[in-house]
What does this fold into?
Amino acid sequence: MTNKLPPGQFETDTWPILHQGDIYLFNQEHWGFKLFGEVDKEVILTFKEFSSLPKVISTIDMHCVTTWSKFGTFFQGVPFRELVSLVNLNGGVEYVKIYGYYNGDMFGYSANLPLNSLLGDDALFVDKWGDSESQLQDITPKHGFPFRFIPPASFYLWKGTKWVSGIKFMREDEAGFWEEMGYSMTANPYKEERYR
Ligand SMILES: Nc1nc2c(c(=O)[nH]1)N[C@H]1C(S)=C(S)[C@@H](COP(=O)(O)O)O[C@H]1N2
Ligand SMILES: [Mo]
It folds into this structure.
């Protein structure tokens, strides 16, 4: 919001591309989004069901741990809280893991986040983006088509799972893909929490 550069970051105007493994090739027949873990009953949404959830447009700054930051990008997407409203959570749920494709494995990538930080308009499953250079358009396969998560700016962008496939609700915090390799569980760019 304030275009304040976190420590150790530089500003970029273009949107870089960064990920491990293959770019997921969208197939509507096989696409699904699973809500699981500490829930009363698991839910699997089809592409049509997920796409018809309410959407908002928000400007969310991105901070990648590789030191680029991009300000002023606006995103259209389904707020995280809309997914939460589709399940009955068991008592004591405080964390989630947001899953996505990695080399053909539907749940091969994941990132952990605290649930209570994801209930605003700055935590979105995004299908469109724009900025001062580009008008609102579909996100490309490289950026996570058909839906990718964009986390609040208080988290490094590796928490923004591309090619999303589900949310696991958890009582205890649990490391995801990069966290298992030594990256921060909390990942606040303004506190420069890169590693753990
Ligand atoms: N499924 C998946 N999502 C991912 C990754 C990945 O390897 N696989 N990389 C993460 C990292 S480290 C970053 S910085 C952002 C980059 O998003 P972008 O390529 O759209 O800028 O995606 C994140 N989401
Ligand atoms: Mo990253």
Observations:
- The radius of gyration is 16 Å.
- The longest strand covers residues 105-114.
- Residues 18, 64-66, 157-158 surround molybdenum atom (ligand 2) (CB under 6 Å).
- The helical segments are 47-51, 80-84, 177-180.
